[in-house]
Amino acid sequence: MTKNNIIIIGCGAGGGTAAQFARKTDRKASITIFEQTSFPQYSKCGLPYTISGDIPEIMDLIEFSKEWFEKARIDLHLNTTVDHIDSEKNILYVSNENNTKQEYEFETIILATGASPFIPPIKNIQKNGVFPNGVFSLRTINDAQNISKQVKKGKHALVIGAGFIGLEIAECLHKMGMNVTIIEAMQTILPQLLDSDLSNQIQKHLEQYITIKLHHFVKDIQVTNNQVTHVYVEHAETHEKLTLPADLIILATGTRPNIRLAKELKCTIGSSGGIVVNNKSETSQKNVYAVGDCTEFIDFITKKPVPIGLGSIAVRQAIAAGVNAAGGQYELQNGVLQTCTSEFFGLEIASVGPSISQLEELKPIVGKHTGSSRPEYFPGGKSITCKTYIDSSTGSILGARAIGTNAAQRINTYATALLANMNIETFRTLRTAYAPPIAPTLDTVTIAADIAATKWQRKRSG
Amino acid sequence: MTKNNIIIIGCGAGGGTAAQFARKTDRKASITIFEQTSFPQYSKCGLPYTISGDIPEIMDLIEFSKEWFEKARIDLHLNTTVDHIDSEKNILYVSNENNTKQEYEFETIILATGASPFIPPIKNIQKNGVFPNGVFSLRTINDAQNISKQVKKGKHALVIGAGFIGLEIAECLHKMGMNVTIIEAMQTILPQLLDSDLSNQIQKHLEQYITIKLHHFVKDIQVTNNQVTHVYVEHAETHEKLTLPADLIILATGTRPNIRLAKELKCTIGSSGGIVVNNKSETSQKNVYAVGDCTEFIDFITKKPVPIGLGSIAVRQAIAAGVNAAGGQYELQNGVLQTCTSEFFGLEIASVGPSISQLEELKPIVGKHTGSSRPEYFPGGKSITCKTYIDSSTGSILGARAIGTNAAQRINTYATALLANMNIETFRTLRTAYAPPIAPTLDTVTIAADIAATKWQRKRSG
Lengths: 462, 462
Prior knowledge:
Two copies of one chain form a homodimer. The first copy, chain A, is built from twelve helices and 26 strands.
């Protein structure tokens, strides 16, 4: 057995990046990856855009090819499932596509097993664990390819779940000419991310293009000749029933971390259901690291565990796991900023900081402003709304949301303030870059902060 | 005489804003403004875009009308020049357009006298202090209106000075169909702002549209029937001579602070030529404040005085002056971040931190990266270059430059890091918002920081 024998399970953004950084750190280490699917590291976030054709070639999503891993002397096994791990003997039992079984010894293991789509309790949604024709989740290249085959102009698509991914898919299906309806169980779209005022603002915009049914559950689906044709929907309170035509159903109802192997390794599982890791990506077990969607990590502000669902965080955790597993030193900041963004139907939305319910628990002071990307006198300015949440006793910034032009870049500015534990009194003095074609003298970013700071001062003096 | 009698000289962004905030702070104060021109507070930065027609109506630049000031019970005197101030008796001597003279007593004075265009030593550029036809600087509404009358498609325009304003005007004249040549005395465009590698990158882009002559001086101009027709240009080193046709000449050679009245008030003038003010906008004289382009202030990083030439800073200084003059409390941060941006010929450029020569004096470690606004696999990504400068001993961020898509918003992220005195080790852990249509997993902002941090670590360990 070679020294520094690292085995990585899963070759998504987490596993692939961990392998890369392990190789960078130790040029001689033996590094092996087992990946269930037939594809090496690719971008899951890009999948919806292969359906709309924005990304014309789905194989372009592959960020590092099988050859790339070979060149880096990383032993990548595709189509290979890890069946069982013996944590006493440090032996891994795998089987490949031909059901050939093999055993591997390991010194160090990195779990990058990802997450699986959550299947909501809908009658007839699966038969023996298999969806009928027309029903999909969207998590893999195969899913995207299969969905694309079912996309038909003028037909009815139903998306279950109005989070970022549901709304991204909705736009892509709309672009392909389908009649799209979104069903969301909660009372607003993007319920985990946004206050109702911001959700309502976005909803109004989306309803120009698609139908949105809030506070509704899908109870049952009608399947004829193994093809879905209709869904039966019920209002969450009134229990009023609706039948909707549906040629295509996409489940965008979140994911659950894949922790089967972590349990075999006796890793501690956290309250959100993910593997508990520290800021070196170490689990509770010696020489076992975990990264990405199979883990949970603490939020930077609340210090409470949150599930990891962001590629950008998976990549950072993977850098830490890869470097540390190979004998280097890499520590992440103490918690995740949860910076995220999405764009659909021409609207950019971005966020940093805890989920909206966690923010609301902190009873923050809020500053909100809607402005323009240009001074009033310069035609062509685009709308931008910023909202910032500050601690009512200390005045420190807890989080922010932005909707509109360059929302993501504006949120990065707030993210830097969060990272610095910056007080709103300091942040409001920020002088942003100003030029008439680009930005007004006072950017919405700082005006929202000014409003929050003024409220905070008033509270302190009153 | 009323209590809290505040007199403001100048009604640009500085003077107008100071008046507003004085009024907000003290509803009963007597507030008087004297303004030389016939226009109340308007955006000077918008002037070039009235020439190109991007701003169709020049009077839209007026941000606060005469009526607005009346409503706020601010006594605004347009077309009124302050001839002299008696600092012993606290009396101001003014004359209006009809040369009627008046005297005003004051308790508190706010100088917002701005700056005047610098006229370079060019033969025949003025006759008795007056330009010949076709020669202009661009500082006022009248200047812009007069330039617009001389703009003719197919004719030759010559812009002297390749700073932001020179390049903005060059684009506007090009848009109007003129043949534009820029003459710059230094060896690169934007010489105060950028390293030569970034300047050269921009220059190549601009030369698709206009002619740029670097390291050249305009020595003389040919005037026939009081109309400019040609300029005589000389290379700064070889002294090679050129004659260039010029129907229109714009001087974009910087400004000099207007400090005549400040001298009468015995205010200390600083090394850069501006009035010295502290972070309450106080001058060296009791009850005399100064704001905007007539002042100098310390740079946030170097703590050395820099001339103020940015509307965004003038506005902040004015808030401080207005609030403090009216008996409130307002302090600015200790120094200016010098955040600035501009856009011309489809290229966005932004900067934060000291001028390039001041940065270079600090012998910084530099991280530079050119990336895309989208992941590689998503077509339509736009180029973005970021460069960050860090202290070679402490690793703290000293400044940054960005060229390309959303450069200004990216620079605001760096500006927040500067404001927090953030170390590159912390900044590199920033997780920026990621979504395929909007931004790659690792933004160029953080990759440039990563590169700088790696160099810095290497230097420390080697």
